[in-house]
From TrEMBL:
InterPro entries, sorted: DUF3097_C, DUF3097_N
Stretch list, region Disordered: 1-26
Transmembrane regions: none
Origin superkingdom: Bacteria
DUF3097 domain: residues covered: 20-79, 108-264
Protein name per Swiss-Prot or TrEMBL: DUF3097 domain-containing protein
């Protein structure tokens, strides 16, 4: 008869149990040994494939206590075969199924145009509704000083603004500097237009066309790509290629997240 030795390990030295989390597609985790952080795109034969926001893939074994989820140690397990609810929003945040939209805050986020607003809504809309943040658009940065003056930002009504092509020394830069304060934050991305903040590979081509100075950029892009010269239709084509934060350039992702944090802090 086999003899079993009692477990004499003190309770405080035993590893604490950690939650088991199904490796559903889209779940964003970190492998602490390598520091690689990405979304689950495949789970098979005891391994999980992650894709980071730059499109790089890595395969890891699904070992116990092998990953971090929102900073907590977890064990990834194979998902069930039945339909599952999304675990994360398009922005990569943890999804909150059934959560009601919060009553709108006094604070606001302004973006430069309608296309910017539609892109922010598509990727961050779920997050913004839960936080109660309303996004409006300016129709150009020239009106920003009067908008900020009328809004009168304060501790309980912060104002965040996203500006296209915000580069040092430009007109947009000078306007942004003139209105920035403790309760008003203006940030920008380096792209000529919000179109360019969408990864071209998500739309089926390798790089955005270079349009000569003096030409309308959007019209030139349509011409170079062989699209009909209808910028409204072109934008809908671009927007339909955006499914999550992974389809956007990091320079835009960081700025929008910064604005959300600023308005909700």
């Amino acid at each position: 008869m086999r003899q079993y030795s009692p477990d004499l390990t003190p309770p405080w030295k035993k590893p604490k149990p950690v939650p088991e989390v199904p490796a559903e597609p889209g779940l964003v985790v970190e492998e602490p040994g390598s520091g690689f952080c990405g979304a689950v795109i495949r789970c098979e034969a005891g391994t999980v494939t992650l894709e980071d926001r730059f499109g790089k893939h890595r395969v890891f074994p699904m070992e116990p206590r092998g990953f971090l989820l929102e900073g907590r140690v977890v064990t990834l397990v194979r998902p069930s075969s039945g339909p599952a609810r999304p675990t994360h929003t398009a922005s990569g945040s943890v999804a909150v199924p059934g959560a009601r939209a919060r009553v709108a805050r006094a604070g606001r986020i302004y973006v430069e145009g309608r296309h910017d607003a539609e892109l922010v809504e598509k990727v961050w809309g779920d997050d913004l509704r839960i936080e109660g943040v309303v996004v409006e658009y300016l129709e150009g940065v020239d009106d920003l000083p009067s908008i900020v003056s009328d809004f009168a930002p304060g501790p309980d009504a912060r104002l965040g603004v996203l500006v296209d092509h915000l580069v040092p020394g430009s007109k947009e830069w000078r306007i942004a500097e003139s209105v920035t304060s403790e309760h008003a934050l203006v940030v920008g991305h380096p792209y000529i237009d919000i179109w360019e903040a969408v990864k071209p590979t998500s739309l089926g081509f390798q790089s955005w066309p270079r349009v000569p100075r003096g030409q309308d950029w959007k019209t030139g892009v349509c011409r170079s790509l062989g699209w009909p010269p209808n910028t409204g239709a072109a934008w809908q084509r671009i927007l339909s290629g955006v499914h999550s934060y992974r389809d956007l350039e990091p320079e835009l992702l960081g700025r929008v997240e910064e604005l959300i944090d600023f308005v909700t802090s």
